[in-house]
From TrEMBL:
Organism, as annotated: Microbacterium murale
Protein name: Glycosyltransferase 2-like domain-containing protein
Source superkingdom: Bacteria
Residue ranges of domain Glycosyltransferase 2-like in the record: 8-144
InterPro entries: Glyco_trans_2-like (IPR001173), Nucleotide-diphossugar_trans (IPR029044)
Amino acid sequence: MSAASIEVIIACHDPSRPLARAVSSLFQDVRVRDRVRAVIVAHGTAPGALEAQLTDVEGDWQVVPFSDGVRSPAGPFNHGLRAVRAEYCAVMGSDDYLEPGAMEAWLAQADESGADAVIAPIRLQGESRMPNPLVGLFRERRLDASRDRLFYRTAPLGIVRTQTMRDLGLTMAEGVRVGEDFEFGIRLWSLADRVDFARNAPCYVIGTDAKERTTYAPLSLDERFEPITRLLDDGLPQVLTAAHRRALAIKLVRISVLGAAHTLSAQNAWRDDDEVIELAAALRRLLALAPRVLEPFNLQNRRVLDALLHEPTISKVTAEVQRSATATRWERWATRNPLYMFHRESMLRRYALYWFARERKK
């Protein structure tokens, strides 16, 4: 049995990845270095090629082989997570790394609070930290998936109590091109007894200097929505509270439906009107999850959503997307029912939180 307190699973399919940077960042906090073990899963590549990169890295690490012939990190992540014996576990991309002090802060918070998960603050390499999850100004402990907008952060970056992961049956979704961690995160944030946010801890950094990241490759509409369809078909919404169902539906409409409509329209990449109808069907399925899902959406977005619901054609949706690009400040802030302008999911509320968070840093 491992003496480590946390095992971090890193999936790596390409020896050209900056793997040594990722692994060494796990051991840079001297006071907790002996509590950390790194397990690098060599996904369809020779373990020796990865081990050669790590010869100068001081710490408890090992490389294990795995091959499933699938271009997805889900398989190697699941392989590593199944073998975890430490109290805590975590996943990490081979392109990513931790800022100094991050691991020490996360472990300290988990030890003190007994949380099932501690969410790490994140940032893209070379940029400032991202306001995701967009929790309230003074919210850090015992977060709620609806109140604290946790569903906008499905990637379980940070640390998770291993027993909680197993009790909830959390695994990465295999067979999807992207979004392998989507259901893992949704289930964790909504079903775990306690989730904390390490708001003031150093960040988990998402590396952007790799030669190629499969996540950035173009996606079809079916590929975009496959993780969502799986989650809905698995029946998870039926075991969520009404507040959580609504929060989940709002997030998916905002990020997935509107995101697809804007991307496909801006790139002139719609296949045909049938594809627009397909997206409209996905929207209607989300609206069926909870009442009044569209109420917090601003006027700018409501016009695009109304086009999908009432006139799902390439010409109409593209026209509304183009029109939304020139929306006035009022259209970006206002909702059809003025009472919803101050809803926690409204854009006005988001702008206010962004502003206050920025002012606190000055």
